[in-house]
Amino acid sequence: MAEISRLLNSQEGLCVLDLGSTSAHNIRFLTERGHKNYSDDLLAASVDPDLRVRDEQGNMVIDSKKFVDENLKYQNGLFDIVLCWNLPDYMEEGLVKPTVDRLWSAMKPGGLLLAFFHTRDAGPDAPCYRYHITGTDTLDMQQVKLPGGSKSGLRLQRVFNNRHIENLFRDFASIKFFLARDNIREVLVVR
User: Fold this and answer.
1) Domains along the chain?
2) Cα-Cα-Cα-Cα dihedral of 39, 44, 47, 49, to 10°?
3) Cβ(186)–Cβ(114) below 8 Å
4) Alpha-carbon distances, residue 94 vs 51, 65, 79, 131 (angstroms)
5) SS3 for 144?
6) DSSP bridge pairs for 45
7) What integer is the mean pLDDT of 92-113?
């Protein structure tokens, strides 16, 4: 987060995509520094029952193309920064790689993507948090609950090891890992 903040504080007019639920803290933090903010709650969108379709064998599967087409309608090369937060850990497997691939296209060359990944110690019942930027390198965490108080679909789906994360972002120029608190790894990826 410190590297993202340095960039946000050193330039004006950056285009930032925040993939968590709408946060007044994040909007204020970004717009006060002269940046353009886009918010898109992909976690809530990923549990939409309309994304379920039957495959050739009659099994219910998630339609990743429909998800990407409906939720990531951004022009190519638009974003300087993407705040991905912990989205890949909580999204259904079939949505993760198509989402990352689309984000790659939506980012400018040299753009930064920040993502948080749980470590192996997290456990399947690790709560899902929404991150609010409260300072240059400070985040406030609030547990995510879907509308209506439902928490279904917000279970930790998997724990990525470093090799899986590197593979997920293989089309990007570089990747850096930072160990954070609470069984979380911060990952900074350069497009």
Assistant:
1) 2-190 (3.40.50.150)
2) -90
3) yes
4) 11, 10, 24, 24
5) coil
6) none
7) 97
Pinpoint the alpha helices (H) of 53-126.
Answer: 64-71, 87-90, 93-106
CB 143 within 8 A of CB 21: no
Please give the span between the terminal C-alpha atoms of the chain, in angstroms, as a whole number: 17
- Residue 186 CA to chain centroid, in angstroms? 12
Query: H helices of 63-171, where?
Result: 64-71, 87-90, 93-106, 162-168
Exposed, middle or buried, 88 (CB in 10 Å: 0-12/13-18/19+)? buried
Q: State how far the Cα of 16 lies from the Cα of 36, in Å rounded to an integer.
A: 6
146 confidence band (pLDDT: 50, 70, 90): low
Distances (CA, A) of 126 to 39, 121, 123, 184: 24, 9, 6, 11
The number of beta carbons lying within 10 Å of the beta carbon of residue 47 is 16
- Tell me the longest C-alpha to C-alpha distance in the chain: 53
Contacts of 136 (CB under 8 A, 6+ apart): 2, 5, 9
Distances (CA, A) of 26 to 94, 108, 133, 156, 167: 28, 21, 5, 24, 29
Contacts with 138 (C-beta within 8 Å, 6 or more apart), sequence order: none
Distance CA 156, CA 121 (A): 12
Whether the pLDDT of residue 150 is over 60: the answer is no
